[in-house]
Amino acid sequence: MIQRHLLRASQRAARSSFTPPPSFAPIRPRTGVTRALRQPQQIASIRWYSESAEAPKKDGEAAPESKPADETAQLKEQLEKKDREIIDLKDKYLRSVADFRNLQERTKREVQAAKDFALQRFAKDIIESVDNLNRALTTVPSEKLSPDNADLVTLHDGLKMTEHILMQTLKKHGLERVDPSVEQLKFDPNIHEAVFQAPQPDKEDGTVFHTQQKGFMLNGRVLRAAKVGVVKNS
């Protein structure tokens, strides 16, 4: 009993006399490291590694700084492509507008030509009736138009009025009658047809002095050339 009590007292005394080492006590180097530090030739073989070091780049991998340049070049290429498309579309638009206007003008000319052709056929058919009406008026001698022949005078005046109204109506549609001898025009081979030549001392050479058949003009074009006699003194 006494021995057990003494043993416990000795253990408590040993525990109270033990002091733990400080938390920042220097750590003694191991024997192997001490030997390495003692040998200078082995210091150069020691390698140090950093956890923050960049990973090695793979072959063909672009640097981060080249990405903005690549994006700028790609955007520039897309912009140039869009500009070319805009120019192409604008050219096609202008060509379409020009083709449409040409089509309008061509259609307008064709419609007008069809109208003129239809009127030309009608005018060629009616000028014969106008010629016959004019012959009927010119065949009546002026001495017959006297009060003694009242019926003939009335008929002549009616025919003359009918001819006047008919010519006014035809003129509204572009058909005009041409009598070069009345206006004493110079001979024009484009609108006149010389049938004969005769001397006229009181007139200049090349002047139309007689109209054998009156001509007709349709919208400024010759429908039928006037047959005339031309002065030739020499």
From TrEMBL:
Keywords: Chaperone, Mitochondrion. GO terms for cellular component: PAM complex, Tim23 associated import motor. It is found in: Mitochondrion matrix. The keyword Transmembrane does not apply. GO terms for molecular function: adenyl-nucleotide exchange factor activity; protein homodimerization activity; protein-folding chaperone binding; unfolded protein binding. One of its GO terms (biological process) is protein folding. It holds the Pfam family GrpE. Its main location: mitochondrion. Residues 1-73 are annotated as: Disordered. It comes from the Eukaryota. Belongs to the GrpE family. Essential component of the PAM complex, a complex required for the translocation of transit peptide-containing proteins from the inner membrane into the mitochondrial matrix in an ATP-dependent manner. HAMAP family: GrpE. This is GrpE protein homolog.
